[in-house]
Amino acid sequence: MARAVHTSNDGHVVISKEAAEPLLPPAASGVAAEVARWRAFLASERRMSPKTVEAYSRDASQFLSFLGEHLGGKVTLARLSKLAPADVRAFMAARRAQGIGSRSLMRALAGVRSFARFLEREGKGRVGALAAVRAPKIAKTLPKPLSVSAARQFADADLRAGEEREPWVLARDAAVLALLYGSGLRISEALGLQRKEVPAPGKGDAITVTGKGNKQRMVPVLRQVLVLIADYVKLCPYDLPADGALFVGARGGPLSPRIVQLAMARLRGALGLPETATPHALRHSFATHLLARGGDLRAIQELLGHASLSTTQIYTAIDTERLMDVYRSAHPRA
After folding, report:
1. Mean pLDDT by 10 residues, the chain (334 residues)
2. Can you give 172-184 as a three-state secondary structure string?
3. Predicted local confidence at residue 102, as pLDDT
4. How far apart are CA 32 and CA 291, in angstroms?
5. Is 7 helix (H, G, I), strand (E, B) or coil?
6. Distance between CA 285 and CA 295 in Å, rounded?
7. d(Cα 300, Cα 307) in Å, to the nearest integer?
8. How far is 68 from 66, CA to CA, in rounded Å?
9. Which residues are identified as catalytic?
């Protein structure tokens, strides 16, 4: 079946009839065509994941559907440029009435604003009303890091020795979890590694991982982690080609993130840790423990692959909280 949106040999974006029809009505054909071109832009130039493109598209579609009813007719580019802040607030109120929370509403506005920026960039008009309305405030929830001792224990395959699982599976899970804590990786980054990208113990001390937006970064890897990975490779019953996935599932196919989450849950129960002890908490622990040992915030930003320093700065709040807890419990006048 032909793709709804693709690029022709001369570099132009080609939009099929199927790509434009879903937004008719309430959007006029010109707007629907721009939505399709915007989707292609997000995927090709912004290199967003298919799920993110779909989420943004859904947000824009809901916005246009609301405007069609709110304004009483098909939405045109001209009508978009004449929107008032009250129209955008009416959309937000309608979404609130449908039970949408602040975080989802903020993401919806991000999708709609992305479409508006695309229109302005393409010379199709400016939707100034979107810039005049503030996004809803969201209470920041700080990640809950593990203690150093607890984080280390997740890499101990012997803790699960009583489980009815093959030794190579236990070794694999220990290696993955050690990588999340030892190098601060996301699950997707660890499971996306190829065999050839990870050196043998003593043959290197860094790996290149592919993060969000297909951006690559180099991160250090501990020798102890490389040893755990080598142990897993030695026990694995499947052939692991150099250009194939390093970590595989029980049948030799791609390892699912869900399997890693379940392994973490079993260890969490064995260690008596709260439900906040997730695979992603190991990444948080990596950053928090580095900062506590005097790590530079910008260096940690690079290691984590954060696009913005403000994302990394949440760890300063965590460290401050830890210091205040120590102060309150130890100071004689606290």
Report:
1. 43 39 53 89 86 89 90 86 91 89 85 91 89 75 76 78 84 93 90 94 89 84 93 95 94 93 88 85 83 71 68 60 56 54
2. HHHHHHHHHHHHC
3. 82
4. 48
5. strand
6. 13
7. 12
8. 5
9. 186, 212, 280, 283, 306, 315
- Token code pair at residue 53: 């493109």
ω into 26 cis (within 30 of 0): yes
pTM above 0.85, yes or no: no
Tell me how far apart the alpha carbons of residues 35 and 5 are, in angstroms, rounded to a whole number: 11
Residue with tokens 């598209």: 57
Do 69 and 56 contact (CB within 8 A), yes or no?
no
**3-class state of residue 219 by DSSP:** strand
b (16+ CB within 10 A) / e for 77-99: eebbbebeeebbeebbeebeeee
For the chain, domains (ranges, CATH) are 5-131 (no CATH), 148-330 (1.10.443.10)
Q: 230: closest CA among 190, 171, 173?
A: 171
For residue 136, what are the CA distances in angstroms to 22, 49, 187, 283?
A: 29, 25, 30, 28
Which pLDDT value is given to residue 287? 80
Q: In this structure, what token pair is assigned to residue 270?
A: 């064995």
Helix (H) or strand (E) holding 52: helix 50-71
Q: How many residues does the chain have?
A: 334
Measured CA to CA in angstroms, residue 4 lies from 14, 38, 65, 183, 308 at distances of 8, 13, 21, 40, 34
Q: Is the peptide bond before 136 cis (omega within 30 degrees of 0)?
A: no
What percent of the chain is helix, strand and coil (3-state, nearest 5)?
60, 5, 35
pLDDT score recorded for residue 272? 85
**How far, in Å, CA of 70 to CA of 288, rounded?**
48
Cβ neighbors of 41 (< 8 A, separation 6 or more) are 13, 118
* CB-based contacts of 176, cutoff 8 Å, min separation 6: 187, 190, 191, 247, 255, 260, 263
Neighbouring C-beta atoms of residue 122, cutoff 10 Å: 12
